[in-house]
Predict the structure.
Amino acid sequence: MPHLLMLLPAPDRPRDERGDVPGWVMVTLMTAIVVAALTPFVGDELRGLLERAFSMVSG
């Protein structure tokens, strides 16, 4: 007959809360590059969209 402790799940090991810092730096850098590359093409449309959205919210 198995012991009761063998049926319980093993406790989680302590996790490193720092995460994948180089990965997040790469994601942030790539996002900034995409935004910088698209801004000349869609900047005016986005500005108009934001102005309309803010005017609707502010009344």
Residues 23-58 form one domain.
